[in-house]
Amino acid sequence: MSWCRPLSERLHSFRCTPAYNKNKKNKNGSGSHSRGVVGVVGVQHGRFTRVSTRALQSSEPNSGSNSRSSSSSTPAAVSSPWTPILRAMPLYAGATGAILTVAHRAVSGLAPVADAASAQSRADVLCLAMAAALALTGLSWKSTSTRIPESEEPGGAQVDAPWCAEELSRNFAREVTWLWEAVRGVNGTVCACAVFVENEDGTLRRLLHAGRAYDTAAASNFDAPVACPSLVRLALDTSKGQYWANTVLFPDAPETLKGLGLPPKARGLLVQPSEKYAVVLTTDAVRGLSRVDQAWLADIADKLASTS
At a CB cut-off of 8 Å and minimum separation 6, what does 232 contact? Predict the structure, then answer.
């Protein structure tokens, strides 16, 4: 299936992520998901975009191979330095054509008012119309160009290796570790990832923490139960993802980040629920996650909930 996309959107690399069908039973009759189909995700300017789906037989986190090593053969993201120039060419051509047309009419001694009976006037009107069309096309192309989010220092302490709870099974630990590697590999703005499960008393128990923590004290106390913030509670109760694109605009953001042990200066916060689990991501850039990113993460969260 082909897609008609601009040149800048076609300059990307690909990364394969397992998809699944949680309603389909496997050969053993259990309700675990199948992994015969994977989604191809295009990486463009540090963001990931779903392109198509096709059947593959690799790139599974449970296959025993590291997802990063399996993706090492994929080409790196291609960024053409000529793309901004090509997008701006219609605007420059239209503006230049309009200026030259007006200058030619001014120095040629013709009347400033267009005369329908004059062939030169009709030609000038046609040239101005074409110049205006080119200028509007150039403005449209520049407005639809991809804007790279500006990253800022998120603060906190760096966690050298992904931390996993000791009670996790081997398969689940591999899944949550793969989740961090997949998200970090396709979106450079993600600076921290945590997976929580709700206890019977309403508190949260941490299952995974990777990236950056709030401080060194929080990084050494991942086993402690966490009080459920209002944002996570809203996500779990409604079963809908909650996204703060700019944490500066939310007064509860500093307390929420501190309570969850996430970097204090994170600019974006996403909570994606899936049954009793909550996947929490932070970004070091404002609007670091697009709607396509959030939809992809919702699929990954559902995949995580179906893993035992």
Answer: 196, 204, 256, 260, 271, 278, 280
- Distance between CA 178 and CA 17 in Å, rounded? 10
Q: Which class for 295: exposed (0-12), middle (13-18), buried (19 or more C-beta within 10 A)?
A: exposed
pLDDT in tens, the chain (308 residues): 444 444 344 434 434 344 444 444 444 444 433 333 333 344 444 444 443 333 333 334 443 333 333 333 333 344 477 888 888 899 999 999 999 988 888 888 777 666 667 788 888 889 999 999 999 999 998 887 766 667 788 888 888 888 999 888 888 888 888 888 888 887 788 899 999 998 888 899 999 999 999 988 888 889 899 999 999 999 999 989 999 999 999 999 999 999 999 999 999 999 999 877 899 999 988 888 888 888 888 888 888 878 76
How is residue 114 written in tokens?
């267009």
DSSP string computed for the chain: ------HHHHS-EEEEEE---TTS--TTS--PPP-SEEEEEEEETTEEEEEEEEE-S---GGGSS-HHHHTTTSPPPP--TTHHHHHHHHHHHHHHHHHHHHHHHHHTT--SS--TT-HHHHHHHHHHHHHHHHHHHHHHHHHTSPPPPPB----SEEEEEEEE-TTS-HHHHHHHHHHHHHHHHH-TTEEEEEEEEE-TTS-EEEEEEEEEESSHHHHT-TTS-B---HHHHHHHHHTS-EEES-GGG-TTHHHHHHHHT--TT-SEEEEEEETTEEEEEEESBTT-S-HHHHHHHHHHHHHHHT--
